Amino acid sequence: MAMVKLEPPAQLGMSLGEAMFTQRAIRRLKPDPISDEDIQVLMDAASKAPNARNEHRGRFLVVRDREKIRKFAELYTEAWWAKQPEGWSPENAPPGDKHLGPMRLAGAMKDVPVVVLAVSTAPRYASSILPAAQNLMLAARALGIGSVLTTLHPCVTHRIHELFKLPPEAEVHCCIPLGYPEGRFGTTARLPTSETTFYDEWGNPPPWE
Amino acid sequence: MAMVKLEPPAQLGMSLGEAMFTQRAIRRLKPDPISDEDIQVLMDAASKAPNARNEHRGRFLVVRDREKIRKFAELYTEAWWAKQPEGWSPENAPPGDKHLGPMRLAGAMKDVPVVVLAVSTAPRYASSILPAAQNLMLAARALGIGSVLTTLHPCVTHRIHELFKLPPEAEVHCCIPLGYPEGRFGTTARLPTSETTFYDEWGNPPPWE
User: Fold this and answer.
1) 8 Å CB contact between B52 and A148
2) In this structure, is the dihedral angle defined by the CA atoms of residues B156, B162, B167 and B168, taken in order, positive or negative?
3) What angle do helix axes B157-164 and B66-82 make, rounded to 10 degrees?
4) Nearest-by-Cβ selection for B127 from A40, A149, A192
5) How far is the C-alpha of B15 from the C-alpha of A139, rounded, in Å?
6) pLDDT of B86 above 90
7) pLDDT greater than 90 at residue B162
8) CA–centroid distance for A67 within its chain
9) What pLDDT score does A192 carry?
10) What pLDDT, on a 0 to 100 scale, did the predictor assign at position B198?
11) Does A135 contact B134 at a Cβ distance shorter than 8 Å?
12) Which among B8, B102, B174 has CB closest to A21?
């Protein structure tokens, strides 16, 4: 297949700063459908991210079939619980506990309009597909579509492969539910970059506060 | 350390579409320095990407010390050759061979003004640092700074840890040289997304060509 060069789509006119600084995990998603035209914009944006030697090891599997999403949601929920600390339950969690939002997402997954799986055609190659997943989520933000990056516990890998007929050598790097947000986009809280950036060697602070 | 909420910096006013669709691997970099102010913009942009449970497992190590870059370049070159197919050499490579550009980068690495290592504070966690690396590279594009995502062969891992005093549990996910480009930004050639996107199960094409 011949390669193509694409022009930026008009839908991605939001400034880079606004898209990045108002991206946040959106876990409460309306069931309203997302058009194929919008999904194509997301995929085109994803395709422009770097990938090793331009060998195109990344694939996106766009799931909209209701029955497949229902089965995916069961596996996702099982995988979510497998990742929780022993003894954790919503009854003993303090208010604001950071597991509660993801737990609700696990419960709501069956109703999301779209789930996208970011897959590589061979093991490893995270750096050829996760930058593309970030492009996809930034483009979704520009289109007013909410997203959240989730990962699966290995306990469901085999059944996910069966459900979506993935070849054995394929690896799922993340799963991204998409939908129009129930809430608002808005800024995220982060550690200051003076705490997460080092200069020249580990532990050396950068020249800003 | 308290978390912060940041406003988008004025320097990131380029449209999302232009930034994404004109990002390309820039391997010919001028030695001109990059200001700390610009590096801070890149780090702030990176910090806004998703990360698992907002636990901040990602760190960026910004290397500008000339002696450290020289030593890094030696290790990078050794690692680059370790990744090449047996018997490959520039003398027997056909014109346009896709290894030639990266080979030149390995030779030029000692002269780049900045190398950024994207690191997680524990193994795995690729999905908590590679989306941030993509934000960093998109922000660099908006600032007119060239970048290229590179990875290291495991044969140099131990010496990279020693050189930068990385803790044993840290993992380097990619290395990004930065510099003002000798050439131009401009669009990349990619497989059409009708070839790299599937609907509902592996192999099912999407509804566009």
Assistant:
1) no
2) positive
3) 170
4) A149
5) 11
6) no
7) yes
8) 21
9) 97
10) 98
11) yes
12) B8
